[in-house]
Design brief:
CATH class of the largest domain: Mainly Alpha
CATH superfamily of the largest domain: MFS general substrate transporter like domains
CATH architecture of the largest domain: Up-down Bundle
Number of domains: 2
Largest sheet: 2 strands, parallel
Radius of gyration: 25 Å
Strand order of the largest sheet: 1-4
Length: about 575
């Protein structure tokens, strides 16, 4: 690196190149670097949805699990895929960094996909079960199958939170032009994700059911390997966030409520400027960002009182550290009201698919559409909605609101949750219609095909896809944007863990509803025979709790205060 190069040639956010030197702005980062990342995201989503979309069918047709057990197992696996990123993000933020955590985890992911492909391909490893009865050998083979599945979830734990965050790191927040590019990054990143999911739900599920499960799992496995080679080819273009301290940033955040409690008897100053804070030069020299005081969770401000601490162990923390703790508290509040929407999303790969198997799926006498393929319309609606949102909706709203994003992050979530409620209402109405047709035609046997086209389910799939453009992308951007600067990877796990807990919650609800409603010989809401149960009641239940959750979200969002930080010495940026 020549000392003659002007300082302005380097990134201003302190990022480093792959050799650990200050990154050159012109030679690293931006979309040039992200081009090497998007391939992996597309193939990873293809692999995940290639498994998740049709897993309930594999479990019921190949392993002969009953409906409730298969839904529970799919939800538990999906939940683990979305929960494990908490650990992957922790390792990345505090130990290995995003690049190396992703690298190691992606190899584990490929190993899991390889084992899964082998498990469904080799006859010696495929269990021979009939009517849920398996011999000892078959039970060990099933254990091998599930071990492969959960190896994938371990790999996803390190790849999911770090690949998107690593991509966002390629844009310099201190550079206005790059900051504008970053505003669109998550939209187009998710566009790539949706593209991978589309290929899975249209192509892979058909291959699995008609050409073989081994081929259906093998294709994305090979794709993952190729995309990893492309990822490593871009190594010299990547920017890496430098760790500004060897201290675990979570320790100070955890100390905030502790110190505030110790100072509970002290009186807060009327002027927040009297609270403890470093001089601005400290943040300039360390490369950290100062966060402004906000009137949110005021009790925590007592951790930053300068004078009168009860003990030396209660050394006042800075306003910035207190505000970072407030951010975590606020994010938890928003996270809680995302769990029900995540539960609704879980229906796409479980009950919606099982519901579709009872309907007429013939497109011609020779061709029957796989029930899981209807999930492709979720992805198609996303693919169409993302550019529409980014290129038309945002500029239109920006002119009217003055907000660079068009609308606030929480307004985006609220719109998504509302659209999702409409989708659930339609799902309920369609199921009422299906039950009416069943009653009219006297169809009570499990394999009776209801004379209704599977495309009756299309509106609920499309609306959930549109809703996801608002709430899924909005949540990813919200948790990344509002996270403390040193906890970006861990912050994005609020997004993934919400989906994970939503899957576990759906598993719990399905199990309990089936158990409670089927007592005393009554017709269960959810059973093996969807033609002789009350799935409409379960959808009605989901509609009620979704409406209640929207009210809770409106309350939480009205009290949330966005992060305000200094990114320039003489200019304030309101996020």
């Amino acid at each position: 690196m020549s000392s003659m190069e002007p300082e302005s040639d380097y990134t201003r956010d302190g990022t480093l190149d792959f050799r650990g030197r200050p990154a050159l702005s012109s030679q690293t980062g931006k979309w040039r670097a992200c081009a090497f990342l998007v391939g992996y995201e597309a193939f990873e989503r293809m692999a995940f949805y290639g498994v998740a979309s049709n897993l309930v069918i594999y479990l019921t047709t190949q392993l002969h699990e009953d409906t409730v057990a298969s839904v529970r197992n799919v939800n538990n696996w999906s939940g683990s895929v979305w929960i494990t990123p908490i650990f992957g993000a922790y390792i990345a933020d505090f130990y290995l960094g995003r690049f190396w955590t992703f690298t190691l985890s992606s190899l584990i992911y490929v190993l899991g996909m390889t084992l899964l492909t082998v498990a469904v391909s080799l006859k010696s490893l495929r269990p021979n079960c009939t009517s849920s009865i398996c011999n000892k050998a078959s039970r060990s083979q099933i254990a091998f199958f599930y071990s492969a599945l959960y190896t994938i979830s371990i790999g996803a734990g390190g790849t999911k939170p770090n690949i998107s965050t690593f991509g966002a790191d390629q844009f310099d927040d201190f550079n206005p032009s790059e900051k504008d590019l970053k505003a669109s990054f998550f939209n187009w990143w998710m566009f790539t994700s949706f593209l991978g999911a589309l290929i899975a739900t249209i192509g892979l599920v058909y291959v699995q059911e008609n050409l073989g499960w081994g081929l259906g799992y093998g294709i994305p496995t090979v794709g993952l390997l190729l995309s990893l080679l492309i990822f490593f080819a871009g190594t010299q273009t990547y920017r890496h966030k430098a760790r500004t301290t060897t201290k675990n940033p979570l320790s100070d955040i955890i100390r905030v409520p502790v110190v505030a409690f110790r100072n509970r008897k002290l009186k807060l100053p009327s002027d927040p400027s009297q609270l403890h804070e470093h001089e601005i030069q400290h943040y300039i020299s360390t490369g950290k960002r100062q966060v402004y005081h906000t009137p949110f969770f005021r009790f925590l401000d007592k951790a930053a009182i300068k004078e009168g601490c009860p003990s030396s162990s209660s050394t006042p923390l800075t306003v910035t550290k207190v505000e970072e703790a407030k951010l975590i508290c606020g994010m938890i509040l928003i996270w809680l009201v995302t769990l029900i929407p995540s539960t609704i999303w879980a229906q796409i790969n479980t009950l919606f698919v099982k519901q579709g198997t009872t309907l007429n799926r013939n497109l011609s006498p020779e061709f029957k559409i796989p029930a899981a393929s209807l999930g492709s319309f979720v992805t198609l609606s996303m693919l169409l909605s993302v550019p529409t949102y980014d290129r038309f909706f945002v500029p239109f709203m920006r002119q009217r609101t003055g907000n660079p994003r068009g609308i606030t992050l929480l307004q985006r979530l609220g719109i998504g949750f509302l659209i999702q409620i409409i989708a659930v209402a339609i799902a309920y109405a369609v199921e009422v219609k299906r039950m009416h047709v069943i009653t009219t035609h006297g169809l009570v046997r499990p394999k009776d095909i209801v004379p209704m086209s599977i495309f009756w389910l299309l509106p609920q799939y499309v609306l959930i896809g549109i809703a996801d453009v608002f709430n899924a992308i909005g949540l990813l951007e919200f948790f990344y944007d509002q996270s403390p600067d040193e906890l970006k990877s861990l912050g994005t796990t609020f997004f993934t863990s919400g989906i994970g807990v939503g899957n576990f919650l759906n598993s719990f609800l399905v199990t309990m509803v089936a158990k409670i409603t089927g007592r005393g010989g009554k017709k269960s809401w959810i059973g093996d025979n969807l033609n002789d149960c009350h799935l409409d009641y379960y959808y009605g239940f989901l509609l009620v709790i979704s409406c209640a959750n929207l009210l809770a979200f409106l309350w939480a969002s009205s009290r949330y205060v966005y992060k305000r930080e200094i990114v320039e010495v003489k200019a304030e940026v309101h996020v």
